[in-house]
Specification:
By secondary structure, this protein is mostly helical. It contains 26 helices and no strands. Helix 1 runs antiparallel to helix 2, helix 7 packs parallel to helix 9 and helix 15 runs parallel beside helix 18. The longest helix is centred in the C-terminal third of the chain and has 24 residues. The chain is elongated and about 105 Å long.
Length: 498
């Protein structure tokens, strides 16, 4: 009895140490408790100790070790017909498998946990399982299902009085809104989530809130705001000891550097992110960092090296059901193929990326892929085919802009899409539709900021100069006259942009 009493005390001390993030002390205490339970052949105590060790390994992002001890605990609890312990370890196994991107295994565990919670009339445990299932649906791109699960989880968390749980569900909904490019909605949900998570005293909450705010700012072409938020996310994640939050913040900072054409910084940040993901046993994160470095190579016109690096990650994304990551990688490969002048392969890649992005509700990425499709037609001087392709891209961008209420923010976003509007205007003129070209420019200038208007005028000037050069170089008088007329039409459109 003395040994059992000592084991119980050590287990309690271990759980307290782990909650206080004194993980080394917690590990020593819990392992000693496990040894004593083993000597006394106390199966229940061994199961409780293994479950506690599972929590510790999850905090350390040691996912394989966590799964091993949690499965051991789960088997023991089941053999003892201990429903509460079985339900608790099943839910934790779901979390561990989710973080390892083993979505089918995670889904199975969360569904079992939900069923057990329903049988025991435990709304808090049921909500936790639904939150896990919502995360799986979001990752798979099943946005409607994810939203339904998040809402159900939030309602049950509210009924159970869990502010932390409500905040987690709201954060999931904010991420859905971000993917859908509904940035105002995403920020409103983040504000709600932040309040709940603060009351719930979730240590890593500042990191996750700042991360999503930074990603919103990045999509809205607000690099200074994005940089500030993402730096906060990295710092807060580090302070909270959350490897995943820190790694995701580094990955987002690398993406910002890449979009800002700071390629050396991007490589350094992708490398740091990959180290963090590797430490956290996150295969998908490692893959995304590799894709990021491949995209840098493509930006540097090292086409083959970039394409090869990214292609190696596609099977990993398929295996882990990461369709959003697969869309990003496929888009990058298509851009590399276009750089290599492999237009047929590029066209197929852009179409595949578009469909993946559309099916997962990733609007920003869908618009980028459609722009790529339109550019292939432009590259081939297929102006009749290019114009409708550009029109689809313009509608996608217009839909995104239409969900941005603030005029300045809307103008800033549109400034980032100047190449699309300039190319669409040029294509309309080359296709003999100057009225459509004027309509495109007027539509842009109505919503654009001053910098965007100036950038569009400058881009159109380059097209005008190119047409005048073609006119000078042509030996065919009729062809030269046609080029001059088109240059004049571009000049007229350029004046509308001022």
């Amino acid at each position: 009895e003395y040994e059992l009493g000592e084991a119980d005390a050590l287990l309690g001390l271990g759980a307290t140490s782990i909650a206080a993030r004194d993980l080394e002390q917690g590990l020593a205490q819990t392992q000693r408790a496990l040894e004593l339970y083993g000597v006394e052949q106390n199966a229940r105590g061994q199961a409780e100790a293994n479950a506690t060790l599972g929590d510790l390994h999850l905090q350390r992002a040691q996912l394989v070790q966590a799964i091993t001890v949690l499965e051991r605990a789960q088997r023991t609890f089941r053999s003892l017909r201990e429903r509460v312990g079985t339900a608790r370890t099943t839910a934790r196994l779901g979390e561990a498998q989710l973080r390892r991107s083993s979505l089918r295994k995670a889904e199975e565990q969360f569904k079992d946990a939900r069923t057990m919670a329903q049988e025991m009339a435990n709304p808090l445990a049921e909500a936790s399982a639904e939150l896990g299932l919502g995360e799986i649906a979001r990752i798979r791109g099943n946005t409607a299902q994810a939203d339904e699960l998040y809402r159900a989880a939030a309602s049950r968390f509210a009924h159970a009085g869990s502010f932390a749980g409500q905040g987690g569900a709201l954060l999931g909904q904010a991420r859905l809104a971000l993917v859908a490019a509904h940035y105002d909605e995403a920020r409103a949900l983040l504000g709600e989530a932040e309040g709940k998570l603060q009351v719930g005293r979730v240590t890593a909450a500042p990191a996750w809130i700042a991360l999503v705010r930074g990603e919103i700012a990045m999509d809205l072409n607000q690099p200074a705001v994005a940089a500030q938020q993402l730096a906060t996310a990295e710092r807060s994640g580090t302070e909270a000891g959350d490897l995943t939050a820190t790694a995701d913040a580094l990955l987002a900072q690398a993406e910002l550097a890449l979009r800002s054409d700071h390629l050396d910084d991007a490589v350094a940040l992708f490398n740091r992110a990959q180290d963090q993901f590797r430490a956290g046993e996150d295969r998908v994160g490692e893959g995304l960092a590799t894709v990021g470095r491949g995209r840098v190579l493509i930006e540097r016109e090292l086409w083959e090296e970039g394409i090869t690096a990214i292609e190696e990650m596609i099977p990993r994304f398929r295996e882990t059901e990461q369709r959003g990551a697969q869309a990003l990688a496929t888009l990058a490969i298509a851009q590399g193929r276009r750089g290599r002048l492999e237009f047929d392969l590029a066209a197929r890649g852009f179409a595949e990326a578009h469909d993946l992005a559309r099916d997962t509700g990733y609007r920003w990425l869908q618009a980028q892929a459609q722009h790529g499709t339109a550019r292939i037609a432009l590259d081939n001087d297929d102006f009749a085919q290019a114009l409708p392709a550009f029109d689809v891209a313009l509608r996608l961008v217009g839909d995104i802009a239409g969900h941005i209420a603030d005029r300045d923010e809307r103008g800033g976003y549109l400034e980032s899409e100047v190449p699309l509007f300039a190319e669409a205007t040029y294509i309309a003129i080359r296709n003999g539709q100057p009225e459509r070209a004027a309509e495109i420019v007027r539509g842009f200038t109505t919503e654009a900021n001053r910098a965007g208007k100036a950038a569009l005028a400058e881009a159109l000037k380059q097209f005008e100069d190119a047409l005048n050069t073609l006119a000078k170089e042509s030996d065919d008088k009729a062809v030269a006259t046609a080029y001059k007329e088109q240059a004049k039409r571009v000049s007229e459109a350029r004046k509308l942009a001022r």
